Amino acid sequence: MHRFLLTPRWWGINLFVVLAVPFCLFMGSWQLGRFEDRVDSHREATAPRPAAESPAAPLESLLPVDKETSGRTASVSGTYADQFLVPERKLDGKSGYYVLTLLRTDAGKAVPVVRGWLPGTASGKGPAAPAGRVTVTGALQASESSTSRGVHAVGGLPAGQLGVIAAASLVNLVPYELYDAWLTVPVASGGLTPVPAVAPAGTGLDLKAFQNLGYTGEWFVFAAFVVFMWVRLYRREAEALRDAESGLVGGPDAGAPAGGSAVPDAASGADAAAAPDAASGADAPAAAAGVPDAAGGAGGIAGAGADAVPGGGAVRG
């Protein structure tokens, strides 16, 4: 009954299933792995790092910023220069602003340093930075993207305010070169609240991370659907074959009219004319007594020779 599985049609179906199911499972596992990697990297980036485990490294040695160096502790020396306020920044659910000061190094380039956060609306110039030569140690952060910061990213802010912490936003505001990164210090002064480091781009639990999780479910559903359709096609084919075999088991009697007598078999040699006429009730030999033959018409009388008529007369053919 299962020989239909060896037909060319079913060879194609089986080959598709054998290739499609492992592919769907592989893609689902790969998407799940991407989601788990984002969760792990987010956990590592946001977890506090003791000083013994993350010693400060020179700023130059950690550039350019990537997933490995983002959040690392960097150390740089120089003097504070221009200062800006970064409005509309939230911390612990409260709205406020960052105080950002550029630190000019001995090489003449400057790195933005977020010295802390203050609640309320950005106004004035913020607390003054320490004077003289200082050594700043803080968490290294990648430059922000203008597409992620909303309406004030492209301008429209008062002088002395900055919408996006990035070298591209500062290049037209200061007359010196800038590092494409920034630092946030773990200990703030002047009434400022330290700003914690953020996870590297592409590693947080953002919309893209949950898209990976959604794609995982879709691929596994596709694999289950392929198996379901194969089972459904197989059962339908098997049931059709069983129905066909059941029709052959009934034999020739399956088509005979209910309650009717058996039709004489032509191979038996029986004369059909010898069968009783159910409509007239007369026996077949009555045809020899002068009943006209339907095939011969009126000539049947002459063919019979002389038939007896009432009164003893005879009619000649």
What does this structure look like?
With 317 residues, this protein is of the alpha+beta class. The protein is 29% helix and 18% strand. The protein has 4 helices and 8 strands. The protein has helices spanning 8-46, 167-170, 207-249, 299-303, and strands spanning 57-58, 73-91, 94-104, 110-119, 133-141, 182-184, 307-308, 314-315. The protein has a 5-stranded mixed β-barrel. Residues 249-317 have low confidence and may be disordered.
SSE layout and pairing:
Blueprint: H1 8-46, E1 57-58, E2 73-91, E3 94-104, E4 110-119, E5 133-141, H2 167-170, E6 182-184, H3 207-249, H4 299-303, E7 307-308, E8 314-315
Parallel strand pairs: 1-2, 4-6
Antiparallel strand pairs: 2-3, 2-5, 3-4, 5-6, 7-8
Give a brief description.
This protein is an alpha+beta fold and 317 residues long. The protein has four helices and eight strands; from the N terminus they run αβββββαβααββ. It has a five-stranded mixed beta barrel.
Unreliable runs: 249-317
Helix content: 25-40%
Per DSSP E runs of 2 or more residues, the count of β-strands stands at 8
Number of helices: 4
Question: Between the first and last Cα atoms, what is the distance in angstroms?
Answer: 72 Å
Structural class: alpha+beta
Cα shape:
elongated
SSE order, one letter for each helix or strand: HEEEEEHEHHEE
Spatial order of strands in the largest sheet: 2-3-4-6-5
| Largest pleated sheet | 5 strands, mixed, barrel
* Strand residue percentage: 15-25%
Mean pLDDT score, rounded? 77
Q: Which value, in Å, is the CA radius of gyration?
A: 50 Å
